[in-house]
C-alpha cells in the first residue's frame, strides 16, 4: 500500500516537531516518522532555557509540541525508515510496514551519542557503561560513578546524577571544564560530592559481567585504576546521516548535512534541521533545532507551491 504526502519529516525531536508545527499550519499533508519519540530532548531531564516553559521536563516539552501538531492534522508513525529513493521531484520512503510517497523530505534525524571506542565497551553497555543519565542514573543510588566529558552536557549530567549517587568523578580530557556559568555554579555547590579530574582520559573499561573499574591515562591519587559502579559517557554526538547519504545529500567536512540559510540541501525538495546539520556550529539547543525545523518547513511549503500536485504513484520506481 502506498500513501502520499506533501511532506515527510524523518525524526520526531525538537527539529522534527518544530517543522511539523509549521507544515501543519501551512496545510501541508504531513507525516512524521520517528522511531524514538522526542529524540535527545526527551531524555534530557529538566530543561530551563526553553522560552515560555520554565523548568519543564524534556519529554513533557516534546509531548506538548506533538499535541500542538496533532491539533492541525499532522500524522505520526514510529516505523523505522529502511529505504529511500528519488525520481525527478518525487520521493519514496519505505518502512517495514508501509511505502510512502512525498513531494518533500526534511531530515531531522539528530545525532547519536558518541562512544569511547574502547575494547569491552560494547559488552559492558547497560552493565555499568551508559550514555543517558536521565535514563539510567537513578539505578546508582548511593553508589560511585564517573562522568566522561568536559562540556555543558556532561556538567548538567553530573549535577543530575548527584541527586542519586554518593560520589561522582568528572573525567575531563582538557585543561578545564567548559559549561554554562549557571551549570558550573550548580556543580560547585555540591562540594566534594563531585570531584573533577582534568587532563585525563579513560583508556580501558574493565569488567566481566559488569563494570568493575576504569583505567585512566594518568595516575589519580597514586593509581591509574579507578573503581566504579557506573560510567556515563557524554562526549558529544555523531550526526545520523545514513539515510540522507542514500539520496546523495552532500555532507560538510564534519560529517553533518550541508544546508543553506533556508535549510535546503543540494537536492531539490530535500531539507534538513537540528543536530544533523552544523548550522550553528557547536551551539546545539532545543530552541535552535525547533527554529531550523520551522525554516525547513517554510522552505518545503514554498517548494510545494513551485512543483504543483502530488507525485503520481507510478512516478517512483520500485524500491530495491
From TrEMBL:
Domain FAD/NAD(P)-binding: 5-290
GO molecular function, one term: oxidoreductase activity, acting on a sulfur group of donors, NAD(P) as acceptor
SUPFAM superfamilies: FAD/NAD(P)-binding domain
Pfam family, any one: Pyr_redox_2
Keywords: Disulfide bond, FAD, Flavoprotein, Oxidoreductase, Redox-active center
Top-level division of the source organism's lineage: Bacteria
Entry keyword Flavoprotein: yes
InterPro entries associated with the record: FAD/NAD-bd_sf, FAD/NAD-binding_dom, Ferredoxin-NADP_redctase_2, Pyr_nucl-diS_OxRdtase_2_AS
Keyword Flavoprotein: yes
Protein name (database record): Thioredoxin reductase
Organism name: Candidatus Vogelbacteria bacterium CG10_big_fil_rev_8_21_14_0_10_45_14
Amino acid at each position: 500500500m502506498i500513501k502520499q504526502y506533501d511532506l515527510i519529516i524523518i525524526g520526531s525531536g525538537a527539529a522534527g516537531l518544530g517543522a511539523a508545527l509549521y507544515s501543519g499550519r501551512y496545510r501541508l499533508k504531513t507525516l512524521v516518522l520517528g522511531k524514538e519519540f522526542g529524540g535527545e530532548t526527551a531524555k534530557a531531564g529538566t530543561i530551563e532555557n526553553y522560552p515560555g516553559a520554565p523548568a519543564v521536563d524534556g519529554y513533557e516539552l516534546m509531548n506538548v509540541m506533538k499535541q500542538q501538531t496533532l491539533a492541525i492534522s499532522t500524522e505520526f508513525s514510529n516505523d523505522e525508515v529502511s529505504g529511500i529513493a528519488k525520481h525527478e521531484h518525487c520521493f519514496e520512503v519505505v518502512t517495514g510496514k508501509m511505502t510512502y510517497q512525498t513531494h518533500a523530505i526534511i531530515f531531522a534525524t539528530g545525532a547519536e551519542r558518541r562512544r569511547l571506542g574502547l575494547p569491552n565497551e560494547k559488552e559492558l553497555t547497560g552493565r555499568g557503561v551508559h550514555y543517558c543519565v536521565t535514563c539510567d542514573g537513578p539505578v546508582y543510588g548511593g553508589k560511585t560513578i564517573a562522568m566522561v566529558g568536559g562540556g555543558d552536557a556532561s556538567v548538567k549530567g553530573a549535577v543530575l546524577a548527584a541527586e542519586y549517587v554518593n560520589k561522582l568523578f568528572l573525567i575531563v580530557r582538557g585543561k578545564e571544564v567548559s559549561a554554562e556559568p549557571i551549570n558550573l555554579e550548580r556543580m560547585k555547590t555540591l562540594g566534594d560530592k563531585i570531584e573533577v579530574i582534568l587532563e585525563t582520559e579513560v583508556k580501558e573499561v574493565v569488567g566481566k559481567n559488569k563494570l568493575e573499574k576504569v583505567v585512566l591515562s594518568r595516575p589519580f591519587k597514586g593509581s591509574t585504576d579507578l573503581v566504579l559502579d557506573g560510567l556515563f559517557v557524554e562526549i558529544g554526538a555523531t550526526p545520523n546521516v545514513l539515510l540522507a547519504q542514500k539520496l546523495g545529500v552532500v555532507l560538510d567536512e564534519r560529517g553533518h548535512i550541508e544546508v543553506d540559510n533556508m535549510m535546503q540541501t543540494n537536492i531539490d525538495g530535500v531539507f534538513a534541521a537540528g543536530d544533523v546539520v552544523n548550522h550553528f556550529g557547536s551551539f546545539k539547543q532545543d530552541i535552535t533545532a525547533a527554529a531550523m525545523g520551522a525554516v525547513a518547513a517554510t522552505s518545503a511549503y514554498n517548494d510545494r507551491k513551485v512543483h504543483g500536485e502530488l507525485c503520481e504513484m507510478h512516478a517512483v520506481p520500485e524500491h530495491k
